From TrEMBL:
Domain of life from the UniProt record: Bacteria
InterPro entries, per the entry: ATPase_NBD, ROK
Family membership: Belongs to the ROK (NagC/XylR) family.
Protein name: Glucokinase
Organism, as annotated: Geobacter argillaceus
GO molecular function: kinase activity
Entry keyword set: Kinase, Transferase
PANTHER family referenced in this protein's UniProt entry, alphabetically: BIFUNCTIONAL UDP-N-ACETYLGLUCOSAMINE 2-EPIMERASE_N-ACETYLMANNOSAMINE KINASE (PTHR18964:SF149), ROK (REPRESSOR, ORF, KINASE) FAMILY (PTHR18964)
Length: 323
C-alpha cells in the first residue's frame, strides 16, 4: 500500500547557477511556499561551494520548520551533463563539480532522498507539469541564454536517453564548417542562436557600420534585453538579429520534428522575452525544412513559468524521488 503524503509536505528545489543559488520550498501542486537566492561560492573551490550550499539549505529547512512543513526530498538542477544516477560529467561555469555525484552530495548534506538533473531538463518538466507544456505529451523545450539548453518530453515524460544525457540540441550542427564551439565541435546551434551569439553578431554588424539604435550603447554593455527593446522600437538590425537566431532554431527544430513528430516547441530563458521576433522565423524555417505532414499541427510557443520553470521541474522530480 502506498503511503498518503501530508498535504503540508514540501520538496526543496535548487537551481545551481554559476552566479546564484536559487532555492525554494514547493508543494505538490506547484505552489512556492518560500524561496531564497544566494551568491554561488565559486572562488574557494568545492569546499567553499558545499559550505555555501549547505548554509542556504539549512536556512530553508529552518523556514520549513517555522511553517510546520516537512521536507520529503530535495532536487537540484545543474547546468551540465548529469546522468540518471546524479553523476555530473561536465559542469558549465562550475568546473570544480566535474565528476561529482550530486545526488550523493545532497544526501550526505541533508539526509534526504535527492535527485539531480540538467537544468534545461528540469525546465522542461516544470513546463510539462505546471506551464505551457501541459496540453502536450511530446515537445522540445529550448532555454535561450548564454548558451542553448534543451529538454525533451516524450509520451508525457522526460526523455534522458541511455546514459541520461540526451537532448543536447544546443550542440546540433547547423553550420558544418562554422564557428568553433567550446564542446570541440564546429557550427553548433549554440554558436548561432544563444544570447552570446546574438551579441557577438550585433557587435560585428555595428563594427561594420550597420545603422542601428544599438550603436548608441557601448558595445560591451549590449545585452539580449537591449536588442529585444530595440526590436520592439522597430530597429531593423535588432529584428534581423533575432530572426536570424529564429532561423537557426528552426533548422534544429526541423530535425527534431522529422525524427520524433513532436507536438510543440517551447522557448524559455532570457531571449524568450523576444519571442514575437524569434518565433515567426523559427516556424517558417521549421515548415520549410520538415515534412509538411509533421509540421501541420506543430506549435511554437513561449514558456509561462519564467525563471521558476527549473525549480518547479526539480520539485516535481524530487516528489517522485521522495515517494
Amino acid at each position: 500500500m502506498t503511503a498518503t503524503r501530508d498535504t503540508r509536505d514540501v520538496t526543496l528545489a535548487i537551481d545551481l547557477g554559476g552566479t546564484n543559488l536559487r532555492l525554494a520550498l514547493i508543494s505538490r501542486d506547484g505552489s512556492i511556499i518560500a524561496r531564497l537566492r544566494r551568491p554561488t561560492c565559486v572562488t574557494g573551490g568545492l569546499s567553499a561551494f558545499v559550505d555555501g550550499l549547505g548554509s542556504a539549505i539549512e536556512e530553508l529547512r529552518t523556514e520549513a520548520l517555522h511553517r510546520h512543513r516537512a521536507i520529503v526530498a530535495i532536487g537540484a538542477g545543474v547546468p551540465g551533463l548529469v546522468n540518471g544516477a546524479g553523476l555530473l560529467h561536465k559542469a558549465v561555469n562550475l568546473p570544480f563539480l566535474d565528476g561529482l555525484n550530486i545526488n550523493d552530495l545532497l544526501l550526505a548534506t541533508t539526509g534526504l532522498p535527492a535527485v539531480a538533473a540538467n537544468d534545461a531538463n528540469a525546465a522542461a518538466v516544470g513546463e510539462l507539469r505546471f506551464g505551457a507544456g501541459q496540453p502536450f505529451s511530446s515537445f522540445l523545450l529550448f532555454t535561450l541564454g548564454t548558451g542553448v539548453g534543451s529538454g525533451l518530453i516524450l509520451n508525457g515524460a522526460l526523455w534522458t536517453g541511455h546514459d541520461g544525457i540526451a537532448s543536447e540540441f544546443g550542440h546540433t550542427t547547423v553550420e558544418p564548417a562554422g564557428i568553433a564551439c567550446p564542446c570541440g565541435n564546429r557550427g553548433c546551434l549554440e554558436q548561432y542562436a544563444s544570447a552570446s551569439a546574438l551579441l557577438t553578431e550585433a557587435r560585428q554588424q555595428l563594427d561594420a557600420g550597420t545603422t542601428s539604435m544599438l550603436a548608441e550603447t557601448d558595445r560591451e554593455m549590449l545585452t539580449a534585453e537591449t536588442v529585444g527593446q530595440a526590436a520592439v522600437q522597430g530597429d531593423p538590425l535588432a529584428r534581423q538579429l533575432l530572426a536570424r537566431a529564429g532561423r537557426y532554431l528552426g533548422q534544429a527544430a526541423a530535425t527534431a520534428v522529422n525524427l520524433l513528430n513532436l507536438e510543440a516547441f517551447i522557448l524559455t530563458g532570457g531571449m524568450a522575452a523576444s519571442f514575437p521576433f524569434i518565433a515567426p522565423a523559427m516556424a517558417a524555417e521549421l515548415k520549410a525544412r520538415a515534412f509538411p505532414a509533421a509540421t501541420k499541427r506543430v506549435r511554437v510557443l513561449p514558456g509561462t513559468l519564467g525563471d521558476d520553470a527549473g525549480l518547479l521541474g526539480m520539485a516535481a522530480l524530487a516528489w517522485e524521488k521522495g515517494l
